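Quick one, tokens below. Sequence please?
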């Protein structure tokens, strides 16, 4: 859904957003509803922050004006998911301050329930997927977290894991660059990949 909203044309993006909003409309409980603008804003913020942290770790650092452009354009995703425009942090600095406040003095806390859910994500119980297969992904996930979050989640970060993360940062971009687009590009529904003479790919309906 995120790929469709971010990279799809207007019709594709709007259709994907409607499907997400329809699902969210059914998610509610005591003093909780998934369409609460404050909750949506926090989810939006985590998506934006994860995209930035991952890109700047494995690709390259963004210049200040590029970060500004990213935040302005990413707001469109939040609006499609029902966040009023006046709820968004106004500037990149406001966004960073919002994240820090939410995790330091705001309502966001890593409690026992959060640690249980994290364990399910890091060590999913899949019959055909041996536990060791997840180790590289877990090292990357742990390495991308802030030291404070690693500590709250109780995730180990020993010297061997730190070395493995540094190796991943160096190797993953090269592996991706050598991987055929057919394997590393996820085409949108109803579209197919087209390979051009330059080796780049485009999509057609």
């Amino acid at each position: 859904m995120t790929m469709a909203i971010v990279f799809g044309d207007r019709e594709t993006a709007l259709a994907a957003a409607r499907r997400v909003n329809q699902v969210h409309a059914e998610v509610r409980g005591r003093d909780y509803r998934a369409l609460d603008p404050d909750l949506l804003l926090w989810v939006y913020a985590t998506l934006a922050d994860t995209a930035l942290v991952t890109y700047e770790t494995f690709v390259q650092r963004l210049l200040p004006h590029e970060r500004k452009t990213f935040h302005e354009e990413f707001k469109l995703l939040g609006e499609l998911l029902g966040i009023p425009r006046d709820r968004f942090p106004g500037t990149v600095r406001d966004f960073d301050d919002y994240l820090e406040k939410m995790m330091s003095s705001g309502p966001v806390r890593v409690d026992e329930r959060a640690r249980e859910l994290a364990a399910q994500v890091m060590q999913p119980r899949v019959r055909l997927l041996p536990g060791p297969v997840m180790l590289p992904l877990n090292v990357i996930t742990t390495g991308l977290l802030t030291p404070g979050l690693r500590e709250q989640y109780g995730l180990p970060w020993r010297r061997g894991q730190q070395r493995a993360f540094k190796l991943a940062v160096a190797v993953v971009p090269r592996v991706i660059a050598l991987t055929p687009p057919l394997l590393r590009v996820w085409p949108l529904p109803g579209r197919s990949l087209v390979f051009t003479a330059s080796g780049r790919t485009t999509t057609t309906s």
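The chain is about 60% helix and 5% strand. The two ends are 17 Å apart (CA to CA).
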